[in-house]
Structure formats: structure tokens, C-alpha cells
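Task 17 of the worksheet. Students: predict the tertiary structure of the chain below and write it out as C-alpha cells. Keep your answer in the requested format; marks are given for formatting as well as content.
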Amino acid sequence: MARDHRKLAAFDLADELTLCVYRSTRAFPAAERFGLQAQLRRAAVSVPANIVEGCARSGERDYLRFMEIAFGSCRELLYLTNLSHRLGFLDADSSLAIERLGNRTAGALLRLRQSLDRR
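Model answer:
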């Protein structure tokens, strides 16, 4: 039986993070549309998408694997956010908002992974 991703705090945070990234990257230069802007958005979408896909898997091992992928995407997003800020594409407020939400999401995923490892 599939798990309900909507019951996970990690999913709620990841979904909110994705919306934040999309809003914050609207003003990126046109030259970055297929570069850093697209990479940031792909990494952001990957987090909740992998949570949803993991929840749809019947086996515990597959579920854990998708949570690990979501965690990796979240960490990638945090790096790309920092890079975007240093390049001047993201202002300090947007960068900080994404970083805070990203860290909360990564923490929730880490706690979820740890609880699955203990089973």
C-alpha cells in the first residue's frame, strides 16, 4: 500500500521550498533561463517529486532510496542558491529565505531517513 506523502512534514517543506525558488528566480537574467535558473528549479522540483515517488513505492528500501535522492537534491539546491547569490542573481533576502527553508527541509529529510534506518 502506498504511503501518503501529504502526511509528511518533509513534503510540506519541500513543496513550500519549490514555490519559494520559483518566485525568487523569476528575475534571473534571460541568459540564465537555460542555465542556473533552470538548474535551481530542477533541483527544487526534484525534492518533493522524489518524496512523492518514494511514497508510491511498496518496498522500504526503495522508499529510503528516494528519500536519499530528495536529500541530495536539497543539498544541491542550497549550493546553487549560494552560487546564485554570489553571482548577483539572487538578492540577500531571497537567498536567505531559500537557505533557511532548504535547511529545514534537509533536516526533516534527514530525520525521516534516520527513522527509516532504525526500523
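Marker's comment: The two ends are 18 Å apart (CA to CA). Residues 26 and 63 are 33 Å apart (CA to CA).
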